[in-house]
Amino acid sequence: MVKISTLLFAALLLLFGCQSNNKGNQERLSVAEPDSIYQPKYAKGFLIKYYDGYRQLVLNDPWGDKTKFESIALVETAELKAKLQQTNDYVLDYPAIKWIALSSTMVNYADKLEMKNTISAVAEPQYISDDFIQSSIEKGSIRNVGMAVAPDIEVVVDVEPDFMMVSPFKDNHFSAITSAGIPVVTNADYLEHTPLGRAEWLVFVGELLGKGEKAKRQFNAIEREYLAVKKSVQNISIRQSVFTGHIYQGIWYTPAGESYMANFFNDAGFDYIYKDTKGTGSLSLDYETIIDKAEHTDCWVLIINHPLAISYTEIEKIDKRYTDFEAFKSENMVVTNASHSLYFEKGLLQPHIVLADLVDAVYPGIIENHKAIYFHKLDKK
């Protein structure tokens, strides 16, 4: 009977869960002047306002609508809760002590802040490499909510988290969760177009978990190291030309010229062959187009998920056409096999290391005693 009642409750939430939690834009931000504001240097998706007794996280619309935003008040006293509920989308206790992470990168934020013990549930744990998370799932102290795009509402409600952190989707997948009274906090780091912009979301997560100052110090250290590597290649007289991507279901996807990866290449001192294209997403090309432009390019930077170790022989097995590129023939390829390097899981918060990897692989000797973590020059046959 309890099981049937729970399922009926979930069904009703799905049926009536289309009500928006958003209040009118003119009402949702505090009218009082903040004591101070954290305006990110690189991230475009958030800012933080500090008031006496609480913090307000302001989230810009992930899709660029400047008339829309969300606000989250982090309160230190119970007296402020009722007052701020009318001017914020969510009012949360500060700091949060129990939350749900729907991606492995969110777990990585908590790891960086030494706050993994605050995670009460995760989505798709098969993609999370962290030993603490895996052992906690086995013991039952961390729950599995299933798929990130459709978390199990019964488990979410049972966990009773302070909030659930999600990546933004244009379609609202979480209306039933919010209708159940669970705050849904959007982390739009993957929509940032610069490596430091993505890493700066560490400050956002840090504020939620009561580690804002620590997160700022950590990000400042990341920034310093990143900028030092960037400076080391500024005087290179002849930039190596590079291309990237590979064939997936008949299409060659490569970053547009204003994208996250294109910015990485520029900071690494590369001459990216599609640097002059517009857009922040990916270009969808056929093989004929890419071979025409990239056949004689100096270097191929390959990001791939592959179960086996990557070698020139293995690349030829994947697709014989890859041997047509001069970068393959001259054995001038830089590779990360994400299924082994954990680039997508951990690289976001180590852009300084990623940048150093790229520079060291293409311009060896500029960075002394560097040990590759994510990208490496592919060994010769």
TrEMBL record:
It holds the Pfam family Peripla_BP_2. It comes from the Bacteria. Residues 98-366 form the Fe/B12 periplasmic-binding domain. This is ABC transporter substrate-binding protein. It comes from Carboxylicivirga marina. Residues 1-22 form the signal peptide. Keywords: Signal. InterPro entries: ABC_Transporter_SBP, ABC_transptr_periplasmic_BD.
